[in-house]
Specification:
This protein is of the alpha+beta class. It is built from two helices and eight strands; from the N terminus they run H-E-E-E-E-E-E-E-H-E.
């Protein structure tokens, strides 16, 4: 496994591209998933999308506090409901956080790391993380959801 460099906004155009579907899950995808999990954990993140490491594929890894990491391949929203205001940051926009609105609960379908169909019902932090990572797969950053520059804050050291 390897820790991969994380792309930072605005330097990398792959962050603004819609990622391509994963057509087959082979050993290179398995290796990518393992490297992404290690990279996410080293950066103390709860999620990481492939475009954040310069790979334009519809793949994300997530790890909620106290839980095992998981991968979701070719994720799609089935349902979104409610609204929650969250304070969000991003490994690709280090040093900043912002207040945005996200869905309170989501249902997402996709494939797991073995290629099996999965359906995830989530609320709270997991719903927020799924929306955040799927946004990355569509070339959207959390700062695109900020209604006013007053809602973007620099992290104090």
């Amino acid at each position: 496994m390897a820790i991969l460099p994380i792309c930072h906004y605005p330097d990398d155009s792959v962050l603004r591209q819609k990622a391509k579907r994963v057509s087959s899950i082979d050993s290179s995808i398995q290796r990518l998933i393992n490297d992404m999990v290690e990279t996410m954990q080293q950066a103390n993140g709860v999620g990481l999308a492939a475009p954040q490491i310069g790979v334009s594929l519809r793949l994300a890894v997530l790890q909620m506090p106290g839980e095992e990491p998981m991968a979701i391949i070719n994720p799609q929203f089935v349902k979104r409901s409610g609204e929650q205001e969250v304070t969000e940051g991003c490994l690709s926009i280090p040093g900043y956080f912002g207040q945005i609105k996200r869905s309170a609960s989501v249902v997402v379908k996709g494939l797991d790391s073995e290629g099996k169909a999965i359906r995830i019902k989530a609320s709270g932090l997991m719903a927020e993380a799924l929306e955040h990572e799927i946004d990355h797969l569509n070339g959207i950053l959390y700062i695109d959801h900020i209604e006013s520059q007053d809602e973007l804050h620099e992290v104090e050291a």
